[in-house]
Write a structure and sequence with these properties.
Length: 473
């Protein structure tokens, strides 16, 4: 990644351009002034002139031979004569072709006449004012306006070229740094994958009429209504999003969560009547091939609709809809302990099977923990830091990926939820995006006992989720 020093290089180029602009103007304008032949009138001065058109200026502020002259800009009746020293022929003078004036190094002049010199030679230049007056300073120059315009355009070109060069360096640096940050170790902006959203819709809240059809809820009232013929399969539930897809962008406001450490009461399976038309299966965990999660429908003794979720051999969720009020609740066992400690009311549109409910592939386990860097001397790269919503039960973007930069320029990513750091993204080979891997602390005890490849997808552990829930007002 290009360092921030390149931004300083861009600024230096711009400053050099400004200095070049001033230097060109100063030196070239000084040369313009020295190229003007000066004559003090009344009086006569013989000059060597080349063939061409000369502009005659009245230099109303001037310095000649160490003497300072100052006069009104306009001198009524001022006459100027240019005579060939060789032939004695007087050259006709005429008004200038346009308005021209200058102010250079304490000298200021305004154009008053023009004269055409037919051939190189010596010419006597004189001037006077009827009735007397003066002294006044005249200055003669050939091509003065053209040289003045060339000087100004040249200075502007130097400044413009330096600006373009500085802007190019800055843009290239910005783009390359942004691309490099994109390759830095950081998870996808969705809840890091591995466990995907189980349901889109309220899950087992209302019955689907088709065989094995998943259950669907009326979004407007929450009442239990048939979803209509499904044609079989998991028609009412879309497939899990592909790896790397944003699984949270469409999530609704988070559901309320009530925590009971002793566990909320769940339906008694012995008192339920199976409704096999509402049974189904779906692929809810990206790391596990096939449709590993089963959904089963039941009817309770009071006519309530009940749904049960099982992943692997673990029952981890119950959905119950009261037939009178249409109120729906989700009871969830986040630790696979048989205690359904979470009650979500209302049911969120997206929720997940707990990690303990399904075997995971591609995960190395070391009970003593994999090494993580000591980041006390690291600094945060605020431009690379991201926040995202990985928990449906917690409103807002509760999970942060902080990109940390070490004194040697090495970079690591740290994942934090609810103030609990639970994973690091690390390079096995410096700056090699393909070598990124994750170490994860599943118990929030400071031991990073899980190692996952950089392409793995995963969620915050239940202990970090609990910290985020507890931190809510």
């Amino acid at each position: 990644m290009p360092g921030r020093t390149w931004y300083a290089v861009a600024a230096g180029i711009l400053l050099l351009g400004i200095a070049g602009f001033a230097l060109v103007l100063f030196t070239r304008l000084k040369d313009l002034g020295s190229g003007l032949e000066q004559v003090v009138v009344p009086g006569e001065t013989e000059l060597a002139l080349d063939a061409g058109t000369y502009t005659i200026f009245h230099e109303h502020r001037s310095v000649v031979d160490g003497r300072f002259y100052s006069a009104p800009e306009n001198v009524p009746g001022l006459r100027v004569r240019v005579v060939s020293a060789a032939s004695g022929r007087e050259l006709p003078v005429r008004p200038p072709g346009g308005d021209a004036s200058y102010s250079i190094g304490g000298r200021s002049g305004v154009a008053i006449f023009s004269v055409d010199v037919p051939e190189p030679g010596r010419y006597r230049v004189s001037g006077d004012v009827p009735g007397g007056g003066g002294p006044y300073v005249l200055a003669l120059g050939s091509g003065f306006g053209r040289r003045l315009l060339t000087t100004i355009l040249g200075a502007i070109a130097v400044a413009l070229l330096s600006f373009v060069a500085a802007l190019t360096v800055a843009i290239v640096t910005f783009v390359r740094r942004r691309r490099a940050r994109g390759a830095a170790p950081q998870p996808r902006p969705a809840p890091a994958a591995g466990v995907v959203a189980l349901l889109l819709g309220a899950g087992l809240v209302a019955a689907a009429a088709g065989p094995a059809g998943m259950l669907h809820a009326q979004a407007d009232s929450g009442a239990a209504e048939p979803a209509g013929p499904s044609g079989g399969g998991n028609a009412a539930v879309p497939d899990a999003p592909p790896d790397g897809a944003d699984r949270t962008a469409a999530a609704p406001p988070a559901a309320g969560v009530a925590i009971d450490p002793a566990g909320h009461r769940v339906p008694d399976p012995a008192a339920l009547t199976a409704d096999e038309t509402r049974n189904g299966a779906l692929d809810a965990v990206a790391d596990v091939p096939g449709e590993e999660t089963r959904t089963e429908g039941f009817v309770g003794p009071a006519g309530e609709r009940v749904g049960r979720f099982t992943t692997g051999d673990v029952v981890w969720g119950w959905v119950v809809t009261d037939p009178a009020s249409g109120r729906t609740q989700l009871l969830r066992d986040p630790s696979c302990s048989g205690r359904f400690t979470e009650k979500l009311d209302p049911v969120p549109e997206r929720f997940f099977p707990p990690e303990c409910s399904a075997p995971r592939t591609g995960v190395e386990i070391d009970p003593d923990g994999f090494p993580v860097p000591s980041v006390e001397a690291f600094t945060r790269d605020e431009a690379g830091t991201r926040r995202f919503d990985s928990l449906a039960a917690v409103p807002g973007e509760e999970t942060e990926l902080a990109v940390l930069v070490g004194p040697d320029g090495s970079r690591v990513g740290r994942l934090t939820t609810g103030g609990v750091a639970w994973a690091y993204a690390l390079f096995a080979v410096a700056d090699d995006a393909a070598s990124v891997y994750f170490v994860r602390d599943p118990d929030c005890d400071g031991t990073y006992s899980e190692k996952l490849p950089g392409t793995a997808e995963f969620l915050p552990p239940e202990c970090a989720k609990a910290a985020a829930v507890a931190a809510q007002p």
